[in-house]
Amino acid sequence: MVLDGKKGVHLDGSLIGTVSRLEVLEGPTGRRVRSEAERARIVAESLLPGAQVSEVARKHGATRWQIYDWRRRFRQRGALPSRESPATSFAPLVVEERLAGSIAITPRWI
Please, what are the averages of pLDDT over each run of 10 residues along the chain (110 residues)? Predict the structure, then answer.
């Protein structure tokens, strides 16, 4: 690497040769600024049954860790329910006696 005295930048090349052309690329830096609504839509899509966070992230040009972070932030603000699953409801168990004295267990679904 050579330090160019005129611009104060490092240029790749040998000490013997000169740089005849330097191309400056402009455009987006890769960082996107997403609105709250857009983040909410992406998070909602990632929470659909059967959805894979990595696929949703790839589709929207994000990383899965961004989506996990957005989920956490929405939960902290109360916009999403907590990760804890709601109370599990069990089917009541009914024990009936059979004729021969054996016991049959029959679940009754709600």
Answer: 52 62 73 91 94 95 95 91 66 67 58
